[in-house]
Amino acid sequence: VVPTTKTRTPRRVLVVANRLPIRARRDARTARWTFDTAPGGLATALRGIATDVEFVWVGWLGADVPPAERPRVAERLMREHGCYPVFLDAQLVDRYYNGFCNDVLWPLFHYVPLPAYQAGAEKKFDARLWEAYKEANARFADAVLEVWSAGPPTENDSTATSKVPDYVWVHDYHLMRLPLELRRRDARVSVAWFLHTPFPSSEIYRILPYRRELLEGLLHADLVGFHTYDYARHFLSACSRVLDVSTTTPKGIEFGGRFCSIGVFPIGIDPTLIRNTLKSRAVRRRTAELGATFKGRKVLIGVDRLDYIKGMPHKLLAFELFLARNPSWVGKVTLIQVGVPTRTDVAEYQALAKHVNELVGRINGVYGTLEYSPIHYINQSIPQDELIAIYHLADACLVTSVRDGMNLVSHEYVAAQESLDQDDTGIEETRPRSRASSSKDDDDVLQPFVKEGPGALVLSEFAGSAQSLSGAIRVNPWNTDELARAIHDALTLTRVERELRWAKLHRYVSTNTASYWARSFVDEFRDVCEHPPLLPKL
Ligand code: G6P
Question: Where is this region: Disordered (predicted)?
């Protein structure tokens, strides 16, 4: 069944996220700012419904803007990009973003609890981090109210810019106090919140010193949404245990005389974008080049932010074990692992980067030769075209997250396994461009890459996407032995088995898309605002 839903809202939606989809650079000599669009996952997900809904972004620019330059920067961002910036000073960013968000909430929500004892751990318990989190949320609320329109201008309020009130759609764990902060400023505001990470079991959640204040912040929303039923269920039990509220209906929670609806909205990708990229001349050519480079070898692909939740060491250890147990595969399989640097100011991320370097060095040192490296480690982000070419080429994709809200790499890999129409290879008369891309010598004509059936997906059961991608080989990444065997299985499945699995995966990925996610959320948001549940009169 193809999910269909139509967004009927004529309202503007203010998308509030910690980060704006903008890369900002300042020329130190001329003090001139350049802004490029840098669409992250959220911006890409919203693109599909941008023709039906007008979005205005509110968020942090990810750069320190001197106070004197702020009005001008804000004016340009709004005019050129439809983005309204929230300015935060460096110390606030350090305590709110590096500290409370990335050093306290992020690990806890991914089942890495606060340490019982560990040298240096006391900084995680520093109350100033929490104060900064509240302060940052309050700044976001001020900024939202500066762009929010309450509806048609009235006698008392001539600031409105649109005919109907704006919706405010808040994203992620950075902004859990925002619904409350908004409501304090204007009780009329329609606000929803969506969590892109897991919501942990209440037994983990209740460790958090500020567990009550965060839930109270959220319950001022009209709607809160999660990727999976499990996360919604965990949220309900956290509310019931921490706030002692009744959660007899799974549809939502009554709190403080209001009703907060709860919904499940699994995010997806834009498969058409991947298909079109795959068909492009540049990507076909690149796939052919890479096909020549890796001729005679199987390719495994891993693409992760360099984050401890992604289980990169688990993957490398299992690959090492696989090579140790299967010497006949040494020289015949390469793991291309992309590790995109992230949150490099946080100590755990620095330690992880070092550990991954050591593991890659060790495995390549033991199993590599002059002609062969078992692992190609790319410690930087790579262009979309290059990524799609590698996905298409790869015989299997390894997603080994120890926890992950959803994980869209698994979806992207599935979408990029589509076979290409061989009538138009897009690479006629092309020749290898570099020695690296040539299997023999530079006079060889580049052969189009022909995929022998779709590749296999090895997927951690701890990624949200594992709940829907039943065609994947599901693994527990902590079980190195099981993961090593899954790598072997992925490389040796018959073509028929791969096709059967892929058909299931593809059906899900191509129907539960990013646009479907965004439409369903906005539609539900509108419904709960237009038809709020009746609460019993006290
Ligand atoms: C996760 C979070 C996002 C965040 C992204 C990148 O996907 O859910 O909210 O933007 O990681 O992390 P960063 O800290 O660089 O924004």
Answer: 420-447
DSSP string for residues in 337-386: EEEE---TTSHHHHHHHHHHHHHHHHHHHHH--SS--SEEEE-S---HHH
Task: Give the Å distance between the CA of 197 and the centre of ligand 1.
Answer: 9
Is residue 344 classed exposed, middle or buried when 0-12, 13-18 and 19+ CB atoms within 10 A define those classes? exposed
198 CA distance to ligand 1 middle (Å): 13
ipTM comes to 0.96
The number of angstroms, rounded, from the C-alpha of 114 to the middle of its chain's C-alpha atoms is: 23
Q: Rounded to the nearest whole angstrom, what is the distance from the C-alpha of residue 407 to the centroid of ligand 1? A: 12
| Ligand 1 pocket residue status of 98, Cβ below 6 Å | no
Sign of CA dihedral 415, 416, 420, 425: positive
Of residues 378, 372, 306, 367, the one with CA closest to residue 336: 378
Query: Does the pLDDT value for residue 158 go beyond 60?
Result: no
19 CB near ligand 1 (under 6 Å): yes
Under 8 Å between Cβ of 218 and 183 = no
Could you give the C-alpha distances from 129 to 92, 104, 209, 378, in angstroms and in order? Answer: 9, 9, 12, 34
Q: Other CB atoms closer than 10 Å to residue 159's CB: what's the count?
A: 12
196 lines ligand 1 (CB under 6 A): yes
Beta strands 375-378 and 298-305: pairing type?
A: unpaired
Condensed to tens digits (0 to 9), the pLDDT of residues 110-121 reads: 999 887 777 777
Q: Where are the alpha helices (DSSP H) in 280-346?
A: 281-293, 312-325
Rounded Cα–Cα distance for residues 14 and 8 (Å): 16
Distance (Å, rounded) from C-alpha 89 to C-alpha 64? 7
The atom number, within ligand 1, closest to the CA of 97 reads 14
| Alpha-carbon gap, residue 144 to 134, rounded angstroms | 15
Give the span between the Cα atoms of 342 and 279, in whole angstroms: 31
Pocket test for ligand 1, best of 100, 196, 226, 267 (most atoms within 8 A of CB): 196
Q: pLDDT grade, residue 38 (50/70/90)?
A: confident
Taking the centre of ligand 1 as the mean of its atom positions, its distance from the CA of residue 296, in whole angstroms, is 38
